[in-house]
């Protein structure tokens, strides 16, 4: 085991071209950190200052022997979720992501129409692009993700209107829920 390296410590902020991208289910996935995303991907604009949170922790239960000793633990599930708040409240792409593409029409200049209903959310490919310290770039690819929760939407004088989303990542054909690619780019 080597000594700790300060250069391996990092923060993560969005790429200037966008931090969160979405594409239709089945879109060809990027398989590295730097290849440009194809035209099938749409940037979803600004994300709130809370950034991106990935929860990927196994949940377990225990088995006990007669007398109460715990003799085994076993994994019951391992959800892989991503949480973030989109703050482009007037962006048609954001509204289509939140409400479903069939429920949004128009443009900001001609008028946007949104229909809220109980239609099930669509599955998409999600890509999160993160700039780390020292010219390091990270890309997280979710091959099959679906919005499973939308937080309360607040309209206030002193707060940004945003759509707090939770994305559930589902296993792909290789049984993986997401992929991460990290590379340091020479300056």
Outline the secondary-structure elements.
Layout: E1 13-14, E2 20-24, E3 42-43, E4 53-55, E5 59-64, E6 70-77, E7 81-86, H1 92-99, E8 104-107, E9 111-114, E10 123-132, E11 136-150, E12 163-169, E13 179-184
Antiparallel strand pairs: 1-10, 2-3, 2-10, 4-7, 5-6, 7-12, 8-9, 10-11, 11-12, 11-13
Oligomer: single chain
Strand residue percentage: 35-45%
What composes the largest sheet? Answer: 9 strands, antiparallel
Q: Count of helical segments?
A: 1
Count all strands and give the number.
13
What is the 3D form? globular
- State the separation between the terminal residues, measured CA to CA: 29 Å
- Fraction of residues in helix: under 10%
Unreliable runs: none
Mean pLDDT, rounded to whole units?
91
* C-alpha Rg (nearest Å): 20 Å
In terms of structural class, how would the helical and strand content be classed?
Answer: mainly beta
* H/E element sequence: EEEEEEEHEEEEEE
